[in-house]
Design goal:
145 residues, 5 strands, five-stranded antiparallel beta sheet
């Protein structure tokens, strides 16, 4: 697959420079990369990017959001007939990435994490929030006096 879609590989490698994107596997009909899904330096899971070929004629790009081994969200491209230019691959990858980030199931993974963080912080540091609120109120009173 790597030899059949060299411009896809070049496009992914250009994205790879800014991320922790890693080649996981490449066989006769699939190329798979993964990168960690992070929020506030906490790993929520992984995002897998796959190029999958069907019947030696068509390929699709698929994004998966994973927590552990479980797929939480999936977004895929339309069928692609041939290796495209690097620019066209980048355009398709970006379009699918935006759709995937907008996918409610993908967003739910992040929201579940944030809800957990907020509920934990409410229990442990409600005193800090009160102190911060008091400092803010005092600062506003002094500023507007």
């Amino acid at each position: 697959m790597l030899k059949k879609y060299p411009n896809f590989v070049i496009a992914i490698e250009s994205i790879k420079a800014d991320t922790n994107l890693k080649l996981i596997s490449s066989d006769y009909n699939k190329i798979k990369y993964t990168m960690p899904l992070l929020a506030f330096n906490n790993k929520l899971g992984d995002v897998a990017i796959e190029l999958i070929e069907f019947n030696n004629k068509y390929a699709i790009i698929v994004f998966h959001t994973l927590t552990g081994k479980k797929i939480k969200a999936t977004t895929q491209s339309e069928f692609i007939k041939n290796d495209l230019t690097v620019e066209n691959w980048l355009q398709i990858i970006n379009e699918i990435m935006i759709k995937h980030i907008s996918n409610p199931d993908h967003q739910k993974v992040a929201m579940n994490f944030l809800n957990g963080k907020l509920s934990n912080s409410e229990n442990k540091s409600s005193g800090c929030i009160i102190v911060l609120a008091i400092i803010t109120i005092i600062s506003l009173v002094v500023y507007f006096s």
